[in-house]
Amino acid sequence: MNVPCVRVPTSEGEAARRALADRDLVDQSYEITVREGSLYIPVTDASAAGSEFEVVEFEVDARETQTMPADILGFEPTYERLGDVVILDEHDPERARRIADGIADSDLRAETVVNRASKVKGELRVRDWDVLVGTSTETEHREYGCSFLLDIAEVYFSPRLATERHRVVEQVREGEQVFDMFAGVGPFVVPMAKRGADVVGCDLNAVAVDYLRENARRNGVEDRVTAVQGDVREVAADYEGWADRLVMNLPHSAGDFLDAAVRLAGEECVIHYYDIQHEDDPFGPGIEAIREAAEPEYEVRIDTERIVRSYAPHEYNVCVDVTLTAR
């Protein structure tokens, strides 16, 4: 039967499916289909898929009946998936346990089910988890053709930012020198290196840096990736004036590192600056902080102001892309 489908290359399939699922647009009545290097994802509303996706009419099969968590529980639970780990965010431990058991008894692929037990905390940006099903918190996550091994109990990683990461990665040109100041396990670093950039990834979390090295190896880009463990404010001295592009994805406190960013910047440098601000002025404080750190040494041009996602009531996680040009 011909139904509206988002068509993407198979290498981008999981990230596209996740982005559509986050917006409740995947039509579960039909099978996701692979054909000649493309993945066809049935959608419930073609007009809501957005300009970022190509929507076509395509013949797909009706989905065979599967037992999903909602069939067992009698309600649709909220969860997200990271590889074969299913993540809950339930305040009631009994409800969390019930949902975890429903997931385990369903046909949903899950080796481990966890519930958030704390907020992201500390310099290393990790959180506590209650493991409800399974034992291992290590998993493999695939995103836009890249594979990332990580342990959610030891490192920070957000699958919800896949689309935003891809937006930034697509801007990278072969031969660029890119510095990711808070690299984690490499979700910016690895795909940028796959586009032909030389990339330095720095992180304070030694475990994350070990995973970054492993992820560079498993994606075949270890020759273009340098992984550095330490405080980027100290590491910057070794790469002064080196970077053509900087990623500053530490939205709660990136402003504290702008002096280091300016030190790293080359004659012309693009900065992807992430921030969390009130809806009344989501971009102004970040732009002001960048100008204060970079001027008059650099001319500052604002390229993009982008709301990435809602973070809390009346607060947004945003990104400002700027270009610094030495005067």
Report on the architecture of this protein.
With 327 residues, the chain is an alpha/beta fold. The protein folds into 3 domains: 58 residues, 2-Layer Sandwich (Alpha-Beta Plaits); 68 residues, Met-10+ protein-like domains (GMP Synthetase, Chain A, domain 3, 2-Layer Sandwich); 167 residues, Vaccinia Virus protein VP39 (Rossmann fold). It contains 9 helices and 17 strands. The strands form 4 sheets. Strands 13-12-11-14-15-17-16 form a 7-stranded mixed β-sheet. A 4-stranded antiparallel β-sheet has the order 2-3-1-4. Helix 3 links the parallel strand 6 and strand 7. It is globular. The model has no long low-confidence stretch (mean pLDDT 92).
Secondary-structure blueprint:
Blueprint lengths: L1 E8 L3 H10 L10 E3 L2 E5 L11 E6 L9 H5 L6 E3 L2 E4 L4 H13 L6 E5 L12 E5 L4 E6 L2 E6 L10 H8 L7 E4 L8 H6 L3 E6 L2 H13 L6 E5 L2 H4 L7 E6 L9 H7 E14 L5 H11 L3 E15 L2 E12 L1
Parallel strand pairs: 6-7, 11-12, 11-14, 12-13, 14-15
Antiparallel strand pairs: 1-3, 1-4, 2-3, 5-6, 7-8, 9-10, 15-17, 16-17
